[in-house]
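Illustration: DNA polymerase IV.
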Amino acid sequence: MDAFYASVEQRDNPELKGRPVAVGGGHRGVVAAASYEARKFGVRSAMPSVTAKRRCPEIVFVKPRFDAYKEVSNQIRAIFADYTELIEPLSLDEAYLDVTEDRKGLGSARAIAEDIRRRIREECNLTASAGVSYCKFIAKLASDQNKPDGLCVITPDKGPAFVATLPVKRFHGVGPKTAEKMERLGIFTGADLAAWSREQLDAHFGSSGEWYWKIARGIDERPVRPDRPYKSVSAERTFDEDERDPGKLAAELERVSGYAWARVERAQVIGRTVTLKVKYADFTIITRSKSFALPIANQVEFNEAGQALLATLIPVPKGIRLLGLGLHNLSENDAGGPVQLGLAIL
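Result:
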């Protein structure tokens, strides 16, 4: 989806149409999503609201309405389900679809993508961009290529050449730190990455070397998995003012644990590792984790584990602006996915 949260807000409030909008933010928060009008000024998600306001003085901050976004997301998923059962959600606004079966007899993956985009526009009054290709890695890259409201098709014979032209910092699986390391090694594009041997990549990047070697050549054999497992479930809260008081911090963490545990129950997962996230007033971020022999049974245990981690940071050396609590080391369904066959892409 294109600027999903912000687009829903602009759709539901005509006064916001055409204006730079940031979902979230406020006095001390961060931007959860920015409209394309705001992005022209360099406003991006995860940016502190004070920075967004400095870059775009006319920006309008709106409170997030996650129930509304979830409702729209469910509408879009229902559209997807008319075309395939093989839907792998990545978030509320993004998913992989394997359309090999071609239920509606449209003849190609391109035609299916165009029809899905048409229905989203007509039924939800929103725009979506699609990437169509023979593997997940390239389809995801292609989905960003012609945003907003765009379609990009990369056929198998064009895959390696398409990857070669792109900066490695855009690659799924290459985070900011890895991108910096690659650039220090002279790897700026997919073509640069493809010039390295598997042995060289293994020497510098360890177990990730094989993945980088494959994607540089347009190879990704992962199936679309409807049962995609959660890696973690968490929640966090940014305070209006920096907080130092241990009692208030403990109370806030208990609230955060409640939000996070509700998500754990909705996701129907269990986990053994509790992780506390703390962001200080100077934006320094630290995490503290503890793993247990058995899965965390309930919110009480979850909160107690978080409170014990927080206690190790008391007394607080500087004000805290954000607390987060998450459950990791989750149980997963590791059943193999279906084999992808050869529906025409065009």
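Reading the tokens back as a structure: The chain has four domains: 4-64, 67-156, 157-215, 233-330.
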